[in-house]
Design goal:
InterPro entries: DnaA_C, Trp_repressor/repl_initiator
Protein name: Chromosomal replication initiation ATPase DnaA
CATH class: Mainly Alpha
Helix content: 55-70%
GO biological process, one term: DNA replication initiation
Shape: globular
Radius of gyration: 14 Å
Number of domains: 1
CATH architecture: Orthogonal Bundle
Order of helices and strands: HHHHHH
Strand content: under 5%
Pfam family, one: Bac_DnaA_C
Oligomer: single chain
CATH superfamily: DnaA protein, C-terminal DNA-binding domain
CATH topology: Chromosomal Replication Initiator Protein Dnaa, Chain: A
Structural class: mainly alpha
Domain Chromosomal replication initiator DnaA C-terminal: 17-86
Largest sheet: none
Distance between the termini: 27 Å
């Protein structure tokens, strides 16, 4: 999905959930998903947006950082560092409120009744 150096075991459901957090962060920050998932080293807003998506997956789904890394195509230490950085910034009221809102939104999407599509 992101860095071709690391491909750990992941499920289709994990990739869908990671994609949901990426899309939610993209819609809220204006940073396109393709910038957050670019194969090269990310800088600036794209890097920070990806951190937000990984942290959102970590707290909303209760995933350990290893699973976050697998779902985002990154290694565990990269995911852990992203989660630590965002957690450290939750002291800022605006970011904390934003993340609380995003967590509720993701849960609402996942708690909605499933829709079976005809073939």
């Amino acid at each position: 999905m992101m860095e071709d150096e690391y491909q750990g075991p992941t499920t289709g459901e994990d990739r869908i959930r990671a994609g949901l957090t990426l899309q939610m962060v993209a819609a809220s920050t204006g940073v396109p998903v393709d910038q957050m998932t670019h194969r090269n080293r990310l800088e600036g807003r794209a890097c920070r947006a990806r951190w937000l998506a990984m942290y959102l997956a970590h707290v909303t789904f209760g995933w350990p950082t290893e699973r976050v890394g697998h779902a985002f195509g990154l290694n565990r230490s990269t995911a852990a560092q992203a989660c630590r950085r965002i957690e450290d910034e939750r002291d800022h009221r605006m970011l904390d409120e934003f993340l609380d809102h995003m967590e509720r939104c993701v849960r609402q999407v996942l708690d909605a009744p499933s829709c079976e599509l005809p073939v």
